[in-house]
Amino acid sequence: MSNKYTSNLHIEKAKTSKIKDVDFDNLNFGRTFTDHMFICDYVNGEWQQPKIIPYQAMSMDPSARVFHYGQAVFEGMKAYKDDDGGVFLFRPKENFNRINKSCARLAMPEFPENYFFEGLTTLLNLDKDWIQPGIGNSLYLRPFAIATDSAIAAAPSDSYRFMIICSPAKAYYKGTVKVLIAEEFSRSANGGVGFAKAAGNYAAQFYPTSLAQKKGYQQVIWTDADTHTFLEEAGTMNVFFRINDTLITAPISDRILDGVTRKSLIQLAKDNNIECEVRPIKVSEIVEASKNGTLKEIFGAGTAAVISPIEGFEYKETYYELPEIGDHSYSSILKNNMLNIQHNLAEDKNGWRFEVK
Amino acid sequence: MSNKYTSNLHIEKAKTSKIKDVDFDNLNFGRTFTDHMFICDYVNGEWQQPKIIPYQAMSMDPSARVFHYGQAVFEGMKAYKDDDGGVFLFRPKENFNRINKSCARLAMPEFPENYFFEGLTTLLNLDKDWIQPGIGNSLYLRPFAIATDSAIAAAPSDSYRFMIICSPAKAYYKGTVKVLIAEEFSRSANGGVGFAKAAGNYAAQFYPTSLAQKKGYQQVIWTDADTHTFLEEAGTMNVFFRINDTLITAPISDRILDGVTRKSLIQLAKDNNIECEVRPIKVSEIVEASKNGTLKEIFGAGTAAVISPIEGFEYKETYYELPEIGDHSYSSILKNNMLNIQHNLAEDKNGWRFEVK
């Protein structure tokens, strides 16, 4: 826990709740927000008093640096509720550590740990009615930080805002997805910011992804910018490949996000006696494995989707379909294990659950 | 000129001007804004009525996609005033075309040409008292576009805002600068967004630049992310090298911004009978040229600074100092020629000046 920052959270409760207007069976991901939000400003070299206030729009100067120079980072987390009303987070310290790594890479000040956890747990207690129990339901949590200084010089901001907003969610992806393997466009450079959850990393993927979508693919699997021969990640998901009975996923690097779901699945594979190799993986290896029938599964892994099984992929104008495996797939085994841990329905031998009290 | 968009600019004038509070001799770049701003929203697949209104803060939802996914692009332009009160832009069509290229790469809608030029010229007529005559004075213009949709799904926004804000400026860089040549960090990837004026490109440079600044360098010259052997650009400036009597600058690519100042200087060099080669240039070539005394000049070129002469550079822990050349330097010749054209003090044989009427 951080030290110089004393706990001094200000709370202003919403007068009425919007929850009665929400149709929890028909949620559009990321468009509905709870009654409260967490907000903390950085001014004059110090994080100011953190606050929880009713969710509301905020006033921004048109010259705020976030609009011009993209100093913005975020995290994605989820809160789960069990049938007894207990509220749980999943490895929140990982997200806390990562947003500060992202901040450091974007020349933004790191956020104090006690502010983060006090803000997050207080917010969840206030808005816990928004968390629906049951597998597939969650409250998606979006901590983020933006540069607020009113100045259009191309330099780091003097002031920042750290916020947490919350949006009730069902599963992010419906069903399976088909992916296009990148041959021309790239997501990140060696020595760049690909490992960070930097806002600009996402906008950069939208256009190539829209081209893939026109061809019938929902996502792009990015390859290394130098040679387009090594598989990296899918932009909002890390990617796992199963060849015969071995899972393979790319090592993290300065180009690849250190996904919390990714690292949890590597451990869960071990817990389930599934061999998992973390090593560079060539596109040619999965093409060959698909041709000779040893490529059994590909799936994406991320907080929003947990696991997204991939139905097939296109590479160099050829489509490769994955076999149907069904309930015995590694993706099903690992996803169920993961969801059961997250929802307090399975033993948590790695100590990942964090009960919100 | 665009067609489907009829001119329908709404103007709301500021009741009073802030100009009397401005000390034009002591301007801090990008912190003072004129009385008005241009604003146009994109909703339901259409650009709505463009408006000029008093400069003011705006209301933004915390979930606005620009904060989370970095869909934001901008331009930098300047307006100049001659001693007769004439107001001039410099190749504004280049900036207009480029912001639309940036928009396309970030999956943002292109902005109509007649909206842009009507908005810009009307804004300049309203705020022309903010443009001071004289070399070195200008009104810096910042067209930009941001994603405004209130939704945190990682996908292109449905709504956008295009704005132009204006800030009176003196010369951007004071004196000469020393630069560090990048050996580890990178600005952009092949197949990425380095050629676009995407907000996220700038935030990504701040941390490596801050490390350079700690070593006494004001800027970084970026190299290719693959090998760090080819010189690219300086992030806010393209870069020119003079070896013997020849100027050399890197070709534009998907990693390097197609700078308006850069392309104008290439033409001005020709107009001044200075040989200018556009070709890949290795770090080793300028190191060698520095050692054997043939490296005469390095300078940055961009709208903000016009030309920034570089005093020396560090590469692999060795500092290389450039010789002092003085008024006969190519940077002086070209900068003076450029400023004189911009300020309506020299013949404009290339037809670059655009008088605002």
Description:
The structure is a homodimer of 357-residue chains. With 357 residues, the first copy, chain A, is α+β, with helices and mostly antiparallel strands. Chain A has two domains: 160 residues, Aminotransferase class 4, branched-chain amino acid transferase, N-terminal domain (D-amino Acid Aminotransferase, Chain A, domain 1, 2-Layer Sandwich); 166 residues, D-amino Acid Aminotransferase, Chain A, domain 2 (Alpha-Beta Barrel). Chain A has seven helices and 19 strands. In chain A, the strands form two sheets. In chain A, strands 1, 2, 3, 4, 6, 7, 8, 9, 10 and 19 form a ten-stranded mixed sheet that branches. In chain A, a hairpin with a 3-residue loop joins strand 16 and strand 17. In chain A, 54% of the residues are buried. At the A-B interface, strand 5, helix 1, strand 9, strand 10 and helix 4 of A face strand 5, helix 1, strand 9, strand 10 and helix 4 of B. Chains A, B: Acts on leucine, isoleucine and valine. Chains A, B: It is an enzyme of class 2 (transferase). Chains A, B: Its EC number is 2.6.1.42.
